Amino acid sequence: MRSGSTAASTASGVKVIEERDEVVIRFAGDSGDGMQLAGMHFTTESALAGNDLSTLPDFPAEIRAPAGTLAGVSGFQLHFSSHDIFTPGDQPDVLVAMNPAALKVNIADLPANGILIVDKEQFTEQNLSKAEFASNPLADGSLDRYQVFEVSITKLTINALNEMGLPTRTMMRSRNFFALGLTSWLFQRPIEPTLEWIEKRFRKTPDIAEANRRVIRAGYNYGETAEVFRTAYKVKAAPIAPGRYRNITGNTAAALGLVAAAQRAGRPLFLGSYPITPASDILHELATLKPFDVYTFQAEDEIAGVGSALGAAFGGAIAVTTTSGPGICLKAETINLAVSVELPLIIADIQRGGPSTGLPTKTEQADLMLAMYGRNSDSPVPILAPATPAECFHMAFEAVRIAVTYMTPVFLLSDGYLANGAEPWAIPKAAELPEFKVRFRTDPAGYYPYLRDAETLSRPWAIPGTPGLEHRIGGLEKDYLTGNVSYAPANHEQMVRVRGRKIAGIAREIPPTELNGPAQGDLLLLGWGSTYGAIEAAARTLQKQGKSVAHAHIRYVNPLPPDLGEILARFARVLVPELNMGQLVRLIRAEYLVDAIGLNKVQGQPFKVSEIVRRAEALLETIR
Amino acid sequence: MTTLSNAAPALNRKDFITDQDVRWCPGCGDYSILAQVQKVMPELGYARENIVFVSGIGCSSRFPYYMNTYGFHSIHGRAPAIATGLKATRPELSVWVVTGDGDGLSIGGNHFLHVLRRNVDINILMFNNRIYGLTKGQYSPTSERGKVTKSTPVGSIDYPLHPISVALGAEGTFVARSVDVEAKHLQEMIRRADEHRGTSFIEILQNCNIFNDGAFANITDKDGKADNQLLLEHGRPLLFGKNHDKGIRMAGHKLEVVTLGNGVDESQILVHDETDDALAFLLSTMQPPAFPTPLGVFRAVEREAYDTALQHQVEHAKQRADAGDLDELFGRGDTWEVPPS
Questions:
Q1: Are A261 and A222 within one domain?
Q2: Which end of chain A has fewer CB atoms at under 10 Å, N or C?
């Protein structure tokens, strides 16, 4: 909690309000305790308070692991500030632990003197043993380095509700609202937006609505009146570009980007998908958007998901399939068919930890090589990678534009961190989005299925229903012009080469690479995808120390930006932080013969800023 | 499957022939199937551009290259998935899937089940030759147990799938069987498949004269076929044989073959009913040599097609006042205004 704290009295004069620049708060509890919900509402309250923010939900793969166990701990971290921020924060300033297991899993991240709020009634012998505590940490002195607030959250929740005659189980479900109310007071967040949400969400169960309202108010009032907290904290609004904002997760942003692109193209959007974590929310979102000419198809498997999408593309729809790494493995053959028949198709891979089932709910960036090379033969596919949750909107839109312009499948590589993380999104105006018209071939004169556009090398999109353009396509090698099956040796090489040239040619569309920092110098931090925030924060930290460090972040991974080679050459060292064992770094080394060095982390968690800073500092020392 | 027919100029069989050389082995049953499809197609009344043939991989899956319509020769087993996506967004098209016993029941078995259960309004022609032809003669999921092939030199130990039983198990709404060389019967089944709204499935028994020659000789040989074919006709008794004197009747929960006379008369013979699920399944279990092979429509029932229901949902949603308003969509949920400072 970085602060230039100026103490000020509240109106009542009882409590002190300190100003802070930024705060990182983590809610942790059992996966049934509603921590994601509490975190999301604290986020909304913070957004409405005008803060810049970044979130990191972290939940177990098991829907309901046994209550009170370490495996069942779910967490939600929010970083909010009065200035630009890029990450959900390396360490929490405040940890809310709803039970001993949540404390055990999270306490190591809390720095000395950090604020720890616990529900003391949950520290029973049984819960302590489930959390594998040998002694009660509230009593054994092991938490002495923190500011510990033992709050009777369970008892106070039940007290707030005891006239209502609700079953204990129902009352216990409101504990998260007590924690939310209390922390809302502690950081002077308005609870009205949450009260409104409760009203809407529990319209059909007025008892539950009333219970949640009472409990959140009880939490807020407890903070204000009880002699436990002497100080509340205030984080002023951040200077953000004027405009209308909403909070958006990467998955929602991607869904909206796809819809926007299809609408601008004037075509229906078809999603063929099989549920998989952490991609399913795109399917859920699009399933509600039928008024936008959106067709969603929950297929019988990953293969049918992409197969149906390719069929829809043949028919002239903007076609999409969404999945995560294991699904890409299954879809590879159909993606290759799309390469061969040259139809537009978006493959959104929301990466997660692997190999195999791996860490379904945790983030990783380890599917880059899979997207680049995970198909038989020479099979180039463009790859786009959004850097932030909100950017998923733009990159999804761009993926559609490229797919249609170049008649090719396109990978959109997001990950669990972008998918579930949220940030404020400057709401665009529909009329200001780029327009791109889909041009179907209708003229039979001079038509050949593989007659290529001179500039883009794309073949014509001639859809069924068009008289005179009846043709057959397939996965067998085709004649360069007619598209008829051809096994001629020279023709095959010509086709392999032209498919490669077509994708390489997309480089002409890539905007100049932004360089944050000096145009040349000692160290370039080069990243892609969701590591943007941590790398950017690290670069700024190093720059403030006077180090000659710049950050370049690529959104176009295949083909690579045409100016990248020249940028790399202007720095003495290149460090490539990635949440994998070194994938972009291999591409960079191979493509540019640059001695780029990898910084690799595969813990299912994003980089901490400090991890990148430390590695960069060590590398800088080797220069002089 | 029924689709609005377009006001197309009268077409004939030749209009559906492409300029590509047909490359099946001489004598292959596929030639006859292609000829019947090309013959019936003009009668169905679609403009050529509104017809799409989708296939997977295998000998049968070369079929689209020889049909002068839109065509998609895709990957092994996946044609039903591709056809589903196409039909879902383009319900006005007449969509045909051509597959084989390996393509449709082995590698593509899952898609086969699910397209049937969804009742997507497409037509599936499964050429069943009970062998892998394109890969040169391994046993298939419909090969009889004990089949000696290159991959089962001492006989296969797998039990076969029966395509009709599988299709009925997935609640296919139109399930039929025909034979490559029974030109008239096959044409009639193709017409019926086209008329049916929902997934139409025809198992076409097809001779592979290279790797499994004579697999269906008992029902195609002139001499024996009358005794070995049972023609299914809705509302008609299940009679067969040269003299039309053999029939099928119930014996407990099973079927049995009886000969008329000696106290057995037509009143005991089952009458075919295309809407009777239990009867359809029993008929699908009839295997030679104990039973004749039923040909015709096992089951034909009405049920809303997937693509019809999907179109209905989307069209209904598009009637909403704010449908298509991207600005409304972008601004949903909690929003806030950051004023110019």
A1: no
A2: C
Number of structural domains chain A divides into: 3
Which residues numbered 267-326 in B keep a CB inside 8 Å of some CB on A? 310, 313-314, 316-318, 320, 322-326
- Domains within chain B, CATH numbers bracketed: 13-215+304-313 (3.40.50.970)
Residues of B in contact with A240 (CB under 8 A): 338
Q: Are residues A385 and A277 in the same domain?
A: yes
Categorise residue A533: left if φ over 0, alpha if ψ from -120 to 50, beta otherwise: alpha
Question: Domain span at residue A291?
Answer: 246-429
pLDDT at A240 over 90: no
Contact check, Cβ <8 Å, B81/A467: no
Give per-residue pLDDT as tens, B124-145. 999 999 999 999 999 999 999 9
pLDDT band at A228 (very low <50, low <70, confident <90, very high): confident
Residues of chain A with Cβ-Cβ distance to B3 below 8 Å are: none
Indicate whether A201 and A287 sit together in one domain.
no
Tens digit of pLDDT for each residue in A97-111?
999 999 999 999 999
Q: Which of A186, A210, A235 is the last residue of a domain?
A: A235
Give the pLDDT confidence of A114-159 residue by residue, as tens digits. Answer: 999 999 999 999 999 999 999 999 999 999 999 999 999 999 999 9
In-domain check, residue A423: yes
DSSP sequence for B79-111: HHHHHHHHHHH-TTSEEEEEEEHHIIIIITHHH
* Of residues A290, A314, A465, nearest to B314 (C-beta): A290
Average pLDDT, chain A: 94
How far is A266 from B233, CA to CA, in rounded Å?
A: 48
Residues 6+ apart with CB under 8 A from A468: A444, A447, B49
* Assigned domain for A332 exists: yes
The verdict on a CB contact (< 8 Å) between B84 and A295 is no
Do B73 and A475 make contact, defined as CB atoms within 8 angstroms? yes
Q: At what angle do helices A192-201 and A175-186 cross, to 10 degrees?
A: 160
Question: Is residue A473 assigned to a domain?
Answer: no
Same domain, A268 and A289: yes
CATH number for the domain that contains residue A196: 3.40.920.10
| Inter-chain touch B72–A427, beta carbons under 8 Å | no
Question: Does the CA dihedral B137-B143-B149-B150 come out positive or negative?
Answer: positive
| Domain containing residue A583: CATH number | 3.40.50.920
* B336/A244 CB distance under 8 A: yes
**Domain end point (choices A389, A412, A429):** A429
φ and ψ at residue A70, rounded to 5 degrees: -65, -35
pLDDT at residue B2, as a whole number: 46
CA distance, residue B238 to nearest chain A CA (Å): 37
Whether residue A443 is predicted with pLDDT greater than 90 in this model: the reply is yes
The count of residues in chain B is 341
> Which whole number is the average pLDDT over A165-181?
94
Query: What ipTM was predicted for this assembly?
Result: 0.96
A303 and B81 within 8 Å at the Cβ level: the answer is yes
- Looking at the structure, tell me whether residues A269 and A174 fall in a common domain: no
Residue A58 pairs with which residues in a beta bridge? A75
Question: A18 and A59: one domain?
Answer: yes
Rounded distance, CA B245 to CA B227, Å?
Answer: 10
pLDDT digits (tens, 9 = 90+) for A2-48: 554 444 444 444 578 889 999 999 999 998 899 999 999 999 999 88
User: Which residues of chain A does B73 touch, with a Cβ-Cβ cutoff of 8 Å?
Assistant: 472-476
Residues A168 and A198 in one domain: yes
Q: What is the pLDDT of residue B9?
A: 64
The tokens describing B245, both together, are: 């004197």
Average per-residue pLDDT for chain B = 95
Q: CB distance B82–A310 less than 8 Å?
A: yes
User: Which chain B residue has its CA at the smallest distance from A258's CA?
Assistant: B326
CATH number at residue A275: 3.40.50.970
Q: Is residue A542 part of a domain?
A: yes
Q: What is the DSSP letter of A566?
A: H
Strands A73-81 and A22-30: antiparallel
- My answer on whether A61 and A174 are in the same domain is yes
